# Entry
Amino acid sequence: MTTQSYHSVTKFGKYGGQFIPEVLMPAVEELVAGYEKYKNDPDFLAELAHYNKYFAGRPSPLYHAKRLSKEYGIKIYIKREDLIHGGAHKLNNTLGQALLAKYMGKKKLIAETGAGQHGTAAAIAGANLGMEVTVYMGAKDMQRQRMNVYRMRLMGANVVPVESGSKTLKDATNEALRSWVTNVEDTHYLIGSVVGPHPYPTIVRDFQSIIGTEVKEQIMELEGRYSDSIVACTGGGSNAMGIFHPFVPDTDVKLFAVEAGGSGLGSTDKIAYHSSSLCLGEVGVLHGACTKILQDKYGQILESHSIAAGLDYSGVGPELAYLTETGRIIPGNISDKQALEAFSDLSCLEGIIPALESSHAVAFVKYHADELGDVVVINLSGRGDKDVEAVSMELGMIK
Ligand SMILES: Cc1ncc(COP(=O)(O)O)c(C=O)c1O
# Structure
């Protein structure tokens, strides 16, 4: 398979598309035209490269985790997105989109956020580029990610609590889309993952692909070859697509997308105990795209669950759904409990406190080392400072 076969199109096989209300079409079309105009523009690319290097701190290191390798029985490299300014991969996308919006003449940004990492990254980009930022966040997520709410407000962002539905990312995204309809003139909707109507899944993937592009060069220098596999946690799927995309044509490299298995893979008629839409979802439409979704038999969206707020989403990016269907991406599951174990492992063995989201990728290597070959790269999508309070409540205070 080549990347050309599905590059720059509105759909990935049957997934993707633009399932949006008529009133949003002009805004989405304007974004398609804006991205086409600037994505290869030398001034835009040079300015973005400047911000990535001097503001975000790229390239992030690829680190050989020797003690974790010994413990898990496989050679492990960690892509340190936790070291990017703000503490997660999210800034790769927010800097790119905020700069694009500025080139397109927009003055304001709106965003949705789950773990608060995307909202924080949007607040960082907005403050740095002088743009007004409003972030919609589920009330439940605001509670479990208090530190990020405070950080966003410190940087001047207006954080709006969303009280509807499950009070998590799905509801925040609904609210952000609603707000965009009424403010399209001067406002860019800065989506935080490879989800939403075309062109968002493509734009976000392109800005995040800097992760995989760097890994290609770094692993060649360290190993003289690519790794046998790459493992990334998957909520909407932006850190996964970011590290996977440059490797899609390299079919010797196995790509594992690890979803939240939560507290079990079952569900009631309203609630799933997990967030495993790639593994257990069915085809449907959510937030403007056709993709794999957790839904009931009438197409109503099930509430998802994960200990990691950033993975707690009932859908997944359409390109991931497509690449999983073609067999290029292999989906997997990790429970809350296993993720907590890996959170402790990486903290104690390497002195790196991972985000709970990223802990799912680490745990997958622990439990599936025999499926991954000799050398694996883990995308460590973020750092765990934001999760310390929640983890201390789960594990108790450490003496
Ligand atoms: C640190 C971290 N990793 C992963 C994710 C999941 O998002 P995505 O699947 O888009 O990478 C989030 C979402 O907030 C996050 O904060």
